[in-house]
């Protein structure tokens, strides 16, 4: 029997309303390593968003490498780049810490065809082999067609993803031994129908650029990243098990009820897998409270050691509210305390008050409020989010106008002659 440990979306470097999460990351990474030592997997897969930003700080790089080096000492460990990760950083990390150093650590920086590094093979227990197809985050702009220069069509994206996955599947089946091989797929992708945890950027979970669950490759197990809520994926091809491992920590208050986990997957060739989520309990939990000060006082003991966001219903003046709440719950880490006010007609943002909206979502809400059509608003917001995410990227995704200009320049002398 082969065994896989699936983890994802660490987002090292993320903070919570300017509160450091370093203590929580250290605790949960130690817990993941303990689960790996106890479960003794043949392979460990991290399905993307190792870091929270394209240019992680030195402390976050050190934290990542210490944790991954410990995992690689237990089993070969493969980390694919997510939309928050820099391909250039991953290329560098693979150069200085990858398989050429014999450490069993693999950083997959960008999509490669199956025969050019897109499929990896690992020995497992009982003479079995685990064959893993890897698909780091693929930006929709990669599938832009010059026939439609105004925008990247969702149909182009869906077809492009099917073609990339078909290439990986062809390589997976090259030399495939049904009595020995376990086929696996790791991808950082949004699958339609998955339930976001609310800490993802809204434009990253737009159905216009979603992969249909029925389009996922026919493998024993698909290890998915990108969605922070741990969950199985429904509607996949028969005999396929696909799961989001989710983030190991609650990333924002919209997740205060979520139970985080890693996934231990047992597989035998030609048989359905057993995918067992292992809950993660380390790291301080998030709590959202709405009610009166008296009710908060009665429940104060339940918030001990937690990050707390409080919405108080019986206070009009918020000038001293933070101090009052802090005195009631001295054992909590108070992130925010504010009186509950009725929504006004001028309100732009909607949604769970426990969420902290990010800039792309706020901009999308503004565009929608301004009267733009849904298609135009989402297209504009998606472009805005891409620009934000690629300000520090050494190799930004192509822009349609830029591609047209490049094509014209490439053909300039040929046409002149």
TrEMBL record:
Keyword annotations: DNA recombination, DNA replication, Endonuclease, Exonuclease, Hydrolase, Nuclease
Residue ranges occupied by any Calcineurin-like phosphoesterase domain in the UniProt entry: 3-230
Keyword Nuclease tagged: yes
Keyword Cell inner membrane listed: no
Function: SbcCD cleaves DNA hairpin structures. These structures can inhibit DNA replication and are intermediates in certain DNA recombination reactions. The complex acts as a 3'->5' double strand exonuclease that can open hairpins. It also has a 5' single-strand endonuclease activity.
Family, as annotated: Belongs to the SbcD family.
Name recorded for this polypeptide: Nuclease SbcCD subunit D
Species of provenance: Streptomyces montanisoli
Lineage: Bacteria, Bacillati, Actinomycetota, Actinomycetes, Kitasatosporales
